[in-house]
Design brief:
single chain; 517 residues; mainly beta; 16-stranded parallel β-sheet; 14-stranded parallel β-sheet; 39% strand; RHGA/B-epi-like_pectate_lyase; Pectin_lyase_fold/virulence; PbH1
Amino acid sequence: MKKLLVLVASLCLVACKKENTPLNSSQSASFSNSLTINSSISAASSVSVNVKDHGAKGDGATDDTEAIKSALLFAKANGISNIYFPNGTYMVGQTGNGGGIIQLVDGVGMTGDGPSTCHIKLTGGRKNPNPLFYQYYVGTPSISNVVIQGIDFNGNLASQTFDASYQFCTALSINNGKNIEVKNCKFQSFRGDGLLFGDVFEPSLNARIVTGVKVHDCEFYNIYREATMFCCVNGASFYNNNVHGDGYLVGGVDIERHSINEAVLNVTVYDNTFNFGDGYGPVERGGPKVRYRRAVTMGFFYDGYKNGIVDSLSGHHKIYNNKIYQGQIDCWNIVNVSLSGNTFNNTYENIAGVSYLTAPAINVSDNAEATGLINVNADNNVIHSEIGSGITFKNYTKVTANGNTITDTPLDGISILGTSGTFYGNKITDVGTLTAPASGILINGNASGLYIASNTAGNTTAGTNRTTDYVIKIGSANNGAVAPKIVNNKGKNTLKGIVSEYYYQLNYVQASNNTAL
């Protein structure tokens, strides 16, 4: 009759901090709704259902699936907002269905004492295992007001077998709801995503959408597809997380719109570390096996915008102050995006033939000939990348690339193709190679009203070791209505000069006060 020890009366009080550990006097007197489990977990509910009171063993051998399900349902039935996992390893032995194994419950979170001591793990020997925790949206149309913290979720990837195309074993999947917080957890060894929010293909606009998501202070390790995927969301933040290890077929964080009936808005990714130097991308990407992968990728895929015209349902994302090792940021057909203060450190790898990768450290590109791609700012980033160019823009307008520091790229520091905007105050050094010199800023295609000012570029060495030819090079004809304005740019030890105009359009640009240092 242990269940009777869990409060279901009007006081709603449960002593569940740890087995046989009472609440202290101050908690008993105030009936506080907060309990500090350890220094890494704050505000964990003191009113919880202990999974061991529902038969869980946590011994790393017993199948605890039914006990976890029972605790979740008991908490919901009695208005309790949390289930608690004492230290241990809780094995999930059931196979579940295509949706998943354990159904998440609206309004009920899960708490452990920390990911180093509290583990939920899939048993091995599975073929194409189903997701671990999931929203059964037929029976539970909304999952809201849930906090998940202090748990290590382990998909036990090395003990499973998979079809080459299989990538759907996710730790937690929520398709509709609001106010979801995941903190101080570890997600490892899943043949899919760590976390998945809002992956829907609905016939009507935002029939299911997730709002108010926070993912922070978590570790993601050896995740096959994405650490976290945001699609059909409005308002999400991903911060203070550590993403590393093998895998990441698509990227560390994927902000991805799938259809015209989804909104993917207001996602913020900041103060994270993406360290792909300690693992390799999956072999399914083809080509040579490399460490270099996408840290953050944003895109509108499948059918794309209706009639190819950008709407207001994707964008307003902020990606800032992230540390990225052997990685890149991609922005495909998404508008109103700020990429600022990120630091990249990439050593050379041959990525020829590898899918899901592009060479620029920051790649802002039109991959579907969309109309209305505007307002992407790449400012104050520090880029050392021996993979490709520093920043690339293709077919956007009203962009900025201001105050970036770019070094040692084998291709041009900033590449501009059919794009207009402002490029100001960038510092670019030692780009290009001895056999293929490159420029600080390379301009190609039609762009009206480019403004390129107060940039510096050149070589830190003189003589035969120089690889940077021009500060600014115009590589093709430009039929934009307003000629580029190129002013006050400086060069140091360049191979050939400061500004190189296209030879069929000499004196076309408005150039002044561009000088050598």
